[in-house]
Amino acid sequence: MKEIMNKNKINELFTRGVGEFIDPNGVFRKKLENDPEKVVIKFGVDPTRPDLHLGHAVVLRKLREFQDLGVKVVFLIGDYTAQIGDPTGKSKIRPEIEQQEVETNMKTYLEQVGKILKTDDKVFSWIRNSDWFTAINDIGAPVGQKLSWTLSSGKVVDDIDANSTVGKSLLFEKSRMQTKDLFVITLRSFLWTLKHITHSRLIKRDLFQDRLNNGEELFLHEMMYPVLQGIDSFALDHIYNSCDLEVGGTDQLFNMLVGRDVMEMNQKTPQAVLSFKLLEGTDGKEKMSKSLDNYIGITDEPNDMYGKVMSIPDSSIGNYFELCTFTPMDEVEDIQKKLEKGSVNPKDIKMKLAKQIVAIYHGEDKAQKAEESFVNTFQKREIPEEMTELDGRGKTLMDILIEAKILSSKGDFRRLIEEGAVTDLSTDKKLTDANFIPENGMQFKIGKKRFIKIK
After folding, report:
1. CA distance to 17, 87, 398, 446, 450, per residue, from 387 (Å)
2. 80: nearest Cα among 229, 238, 248
3. Whole-model pTM?
4. First-last CA distance in the chain
5. What distance lies between CA 306 and its chain's CA centroid?
6. DSSP H or E segment with residue 7
7. Which 8-state DSSP code applies to residue 346?
8. pLDDT at res. 206
9. Packing angle between helix 27-34 and helix 2-13, nearest 10 degrees?
10. Quick check: helix, strand or coil at residue 419?
11. Residue 408 belongs to what H/E stretch?
């Protein structure tokens, strides 16, 4: 019975929310079924923005199911490639990200993944791809910094210039995350890889073709990105003794397939590839993205999270149930049929969806309170008891909301003012001054669903 349950669970891993699963001859599946503790799965992210949202969580929740079978997940932080910019899904050149911003975002990512993934060493590891893409000459120390070096004889050599060849070598060794044979990509090895990948293979990528057809620029560093991502898989195979599967959204399929090519040319067993359907944002059109401000963050406050889920269009309900909850697929299909027939009220179904999603990230108690707050606020037209408190200290309301990331720009705030969508709850009057400076204790309704209090 246990074996049947495991096979059913594995079947769902490769079907629910899945775009494509590429596993020639079933090599990966056989290893998963027979020896899951030896399976290594790669999930790579570029920390270009600090917060994870429900779109990221689609993949993370699937990885958690793999972990429950005993699989090791390697969370690959693309701190090096983040500074180049993955062109996936971008119709324009993405600006480079400064290293300090990458480092800050990376720490936030690692703190947040623990909300979903197990993080014990047996089933989780993380590593940065700067570990193999950064050369000794890339390392620079403050002018005048001195180092000490303990020789094998026990003798200590002091006053080594950190920017000398010896000094940089010491810094390089100490800064590597790798714990065994050092794996480093040199220009020579990178060029060797390029010798085995044709220009026509890369240029066929649909987004590159779209750029060229629109008369837009396409730069070589963008074309190299899939190759660098493929080298990451080869590096993980060396460091962790295998890289059996890479996961990502359907928009990452091309990059992940290049990973198979790179592994194969290096006489390694090519990784299997598992792509997932993309979760659309709250607009119901574009994929969920912070840059489009259509996202639901996994660290959003319960009331905000609940309200954002309630704002999705009815056409997205089924997809959100499939990708964001644990509701069995037969129930999801039944919900979808009822919605299509009009035999249920979409708002009632959406409330169940919102409560389930909030419960996953904040627990049942807070999910229940978020639902009660929503009912009181939007059905009974009451002001919620709990509001997001924001620090004022002489700032304009516009600056307060932008700093708290409730709004993304001053233009957004001015537009809300023009639409009469900012209300002073103490007077129940619409705010008309875009440069209004609130006083301590004032409460505001921003748009239709957000309430804040100035402290």
Report:
1. 35, 39, 18, 12, 8
2. 229
3. 0.74
4. 58
5. 20
6. helix 2-13
7. H
8. 75
9. 140
10. coil
11. none
Judge contact between 86 and 46, C-beta under 8 A.
yes
Supply φ then ψ for residue 76, to 5 degrees: -90, 115
- Name residue 219's amino acid: F
Across the beta sheet with 18-22, what order do the strands follow? 18-22, 272-276, 245-249, 40-45, 72-77, 124-128
Degrees to nearest 5, angle at CA 181 with 179 and 182: 85
Place of tokens 């979808």: 336
For residue 248, the one-letter residue type is G
Q: What is the DSSP letter of 197?
A: S
In the block, tokens 């592994």 appear at 263
Domains and CATH numbers, the chain: 2-135+184-276 (3.40.50.620), 140-180 (no CATH), 302-379 (1.10.240.10), 388-454 (3.10.290.10)
Distances (CA, A) of 252 to 36, 87, 127, 359: 25, 10, 20, 29
Q: How many CB atoms sit inside 10 A of residue 349's CB?
A: 18
Neighbour tally for 9: CB within 10 Å: 12
DSSP 289-344: -TTTT---BTTS-HHHHHHHHHTS-GGGHHHHHHHHS---HHHHHHHHHHHHHT-S
pLDDT tens, N- to C-terminus, the chain (455 residues)? 445 556 778 888 999 999 999 999 999 999 999 999 999 999 998 776 667 899 989 999 999 999 999 999 999 988 888 766 655 554 444 444 555 666 777 777 778 888 889 999 999 999 989 899 988 888 888 888 998 888 888 888 888 998 898 888 888 888 788 877 788 898 999 999 999 999 888 888 877 888 888 888 888 888 898 999 999 999 999 999 999 999 999 988 999 999 999 999 999 999 999 999 999 999 898 889 877 778 999 989 999 999 999 989 999 999 999 999 999 999 999 999 999 999 999 999 999 999 999 999 999 999 999 999 888 877 666 667 667 888 877 889 999 999 888 888 888 899 899 888 898 886 778 889 999 998 888 889 898 778 888 88
Tokens (6 digits) for 412? 């957004």
How open is the CA angle 367-361-116, to the nearest 5 degrees?
Answer: 160
Alpha-carbon distance 221 to 84, whole Å?
7
Q: Which DSSP state fits 432?
A: -
| Alpha carbons 79 and 108: distance in angstroms, whole number | 13
Count CB neighbours of 195 within 10 A.
Answer: 8
Which residues on adjacent β-strands are paired with residue 430?
A: 423
The owner of tokens 């890289």 is 243
User: Identity (one letter) of the amino acid at 443?
Assistant: Q
